[in-house]
Amino acid sequence: NIMILFGPPGAGKGTHGPKIEDLLGIPQLSTGDMLRAAVTAKTEVGLKAAAVMKAGGLVSDDIVIGIIRDRIREPDCKFGFILDGFPRTLVQAQELDKMLAEEGACVTKVVELQVPDEVLEERICGRWIHKTSGRSYHVKYAPPKSMKKDNKGHPIPESMKDDETGEPLMQRPDDTASALVKRLQGYHNETVPILEHYKPNGIVAMVNANQGMDGVWGEVLQALKRGE
Ligand code: AP5
Ligand code: ZN
User: Fold this and answer.
1) Edge-to-edge strands of the sheet including 204-208?
2) Beta pairing class for 28-30 and 81-84
3) Where is the sequence biased in composition, kind Basic and acidic residues (predicted)?
4) 19, exposed or middle or buried, with CB in 10 Å at 0-12, 13-18, 19+?
5) What is the total count of domains within the chain?
6) What distances in angstroms separate CA 136 from CA 4, 48, 161, 197, 213, one per listed residue?
């Protein structure tokens, strides 16, 4: 079971990935989460990636391919994994195929979360995350239980806490309208062409991700069943 969760920034990859992880018992591997952890830890990779990420650009293929190569060799990936945010370029897709072929494996499913660009700004700009777990919240669509608002109706930052750990939530430095424009350009120019790479295998399943989260989840479940 080697799945790719595919979709633009704000499509819901980080929202549905952990649920698929629970359902199938295979880990979700988010290159975005891994890179953010590297930035926080100030590793060599983190220092190289920080500025590119903040501006909404793509980190170099070499760096992310290296991260994924190391990660999928770990024992918990033995029975499969869910890729979130990787591959993002044709070169990454080709390298992934090669890595998997060495183990006699291949990508078995691509779930494409389809959302029009116009709805993504509200999702991105209202997002708060729990950094250590990667859990996503949204001020309007998925507020944390602790959220309190000021008299103008804006959420009070100190009240934004993770439901499970009570730890503070934060906003991502790349979750601005201007960085989003750049991220969407990268998505359409570099990432969307990957779909054509996988379509001939008949493994791409489309999901309408422009609806409430429960509706999206229902379609994701259908997509997982299809072709199995
Ligand atoms: P990454 O972390 O992968 O960011 P991304 O692809 O831009 O995707 P997001 O995390 O923004 O979106 P998501 O689909 O996970 O949305 P979520 O579920 O949280 O990458 C960040 C950066 O790292 C890149 O820009 C790049 O610099 C670098 N990078 C990473 N991988 C790389 C690679 N392979 N190569 C090169 N560089 C790489 O949902 C968003 C919000 O909407 C949340 O608040 C959520 O609660 C809400 N929401 C979700 N679904 C719904 C719904 N149905 N209705 C209403 N609200 C919803
Ligand atoms: Zn994400």
Assistant:
1) 28-30, 81-84, 2-6, 109-114, 204-208
2) parallel
3) 147-163
4) middle
5) 1
6) 19, 25, 11, 30, 12
Domain hosting 90: range is 2-116+181-225
Residues of the chain with pLDDT under 50: none
pLDDT at 132: 87
> What values do phi and psi take at 33, rounded to 5?
-60, -40
Q: Which atom of ligand 1 is nearest to the CA of 211?
A: 53
Supply angle C-alpha 39, 40, 46, rounded to 5.
Answer: 20
| Interacting residues of 26 by C-beta distance below 8 A, sequence separation 6+ | 1, 77, 79, 80, 81, 82
Peptide bond into 87 cis (omega under 30): yes
The C-alpha atoms of residue 25 and residue 66 are separated, in whole angstroms, by: 24
Output the pLDDT for position 133.
Answer: 86
Atom of ligand 1 nearest to the CA of 215: 53
**pLDDT, position 227:** 63
Residue 204 in domain: yes
Residue 105's domain is classified under what CATH number?
Answer: 3.40.50.300
Cα–Cα distance, 71 to 195 (Å, whole number): 23
Helix-, strand-, coil-residue percentages of the chain, each rounded to 5:
50, 15, 35
In a domain, 151, yes or no: no
Side chain identity at residue 11, one-letter code: A
Catalytic residue positions, numbered = 13, 88, 127, 172, 183
Ligand nearest to the CA of 135: 1
- H/E run at residue 154: none
